[in-house]
């Protein structure tokens, strides 16, 4: 197959932006993100560096803005105020529909919520992870149930669109504990829920403790039961399962993440942040200090740059798209990308249909119930 140089209508023009704030109170043992803890002395330099990095953009119009981390709300309120103001001025926000900020429940108070709301933040994503004290202790989180519940209720009142993250399959966790976490979460005013099984990433202290036998993984069977419990319980309160790890009320799917999953292009700034612009994926230095030194000395903070082929683009959109419960319209994606995905992936699709992992009906490829449990494997097959 002769692959075209660009997708049918050219590379998508980004309408989304992600800003990475690397600061945290401390590093949780399972965390593998680009994060610095106990380095608040770098905050001022960081705020200036982000402004310098964003100056390289030509004030593009965006529809979704996501400030993630790390912990954006770790910035003291007056600094957060200045930072959000600065970021807002580097984009044309006239068409902005979703402005999300990630937050630690410990940071939520009326002052911080007022700062967020004053800058037009209309979605907050709280890193709750659990309400159970024993699980929070294992995960090394500093809040307790009362702080988390209070943060959700206050955010719902002031911001109005609340998402929370919950982790399951923590060492020692039982189905009963997870069910209690879900029951409490779903009784609160949330619009969106993301649930992730705990993973032990190389380079984290949890990875080392697992290898030393200090921590134990739960078995696959328990993990699957926990996942299915989340799916079943979420439905009962009107949160529909729209992506492998995500549940939302009608019209509350995360539009910013949909831009990633639909391969629509996005800008990004900050340590470790990755953009997808004009057919290139560029990733900034993960180290905050290296990032700062580069930007301050007028050097690009990008550490890796990859030209994406149209074939890769089509495969990635297929692989991310199939993680959406609604699945992928293969003909439409083939038309938009200029790659005949039936020709490119036909044998893999036929095999996955016969293995009961996907259904391929009326041009739409969707995960089966069994495929939902093996979504990572399906996605990696589609990536080729
Ligand atoms: S608060 Fe979140 S980003 Fe920060 S160290 Fe913990 S898990 Fe990582």
TrEMBL record:
The keyword Coiled coil does not apply. Keywords: 4Fe-4S, Chaperone, Cytoplasm, Heme, Iron, Iron-sulfur, Metal-binding, Oxidoreductase, S-adenosyl-L-methionine. InterPro entries: Coproporphyrinogen-III_oxidase, Elp3/MiaA/NifB-like_rSAM, HemN_C, HemW-like, rSAM, rSAM_horseshoe, rSAM_sf. GO terms for cellular component: cytoplasm. Gene3D superfamilies: tm_1862 like domain. GO terms for biological process: porphyrin-containing compound biosynthetic process. It comes from the Bacteria. Residues 9-240 form the Radical SAM core domain. SUPFAM superfamilies: Radical SAM enzymes. Its main location: cytoplasm. It is found in: Cytoplasm. One of its GO terms (molecular function) is coproporphyrinogen oxidase activity. Belongs to the anaerobic coproporphyrinogen-III oxidase family. HemW subfamily. Probably acts as a heme chaperone, transferring heme to an unknown acceptor. Binds one molecule of heme per monomer, possibly covalently. Binds 1 [4Fe-4S] cluster. The cluster is coordinated with 3 cysteines and an exchangeable S-adenosyl-L-methionine. This is Heme chaperone HemW. It comes from Rubripirellula obstinata. The lineage of its organism: Bacteria, Pseudomonadati, Planctomycetota, Planctomycetia, Pirellulales.
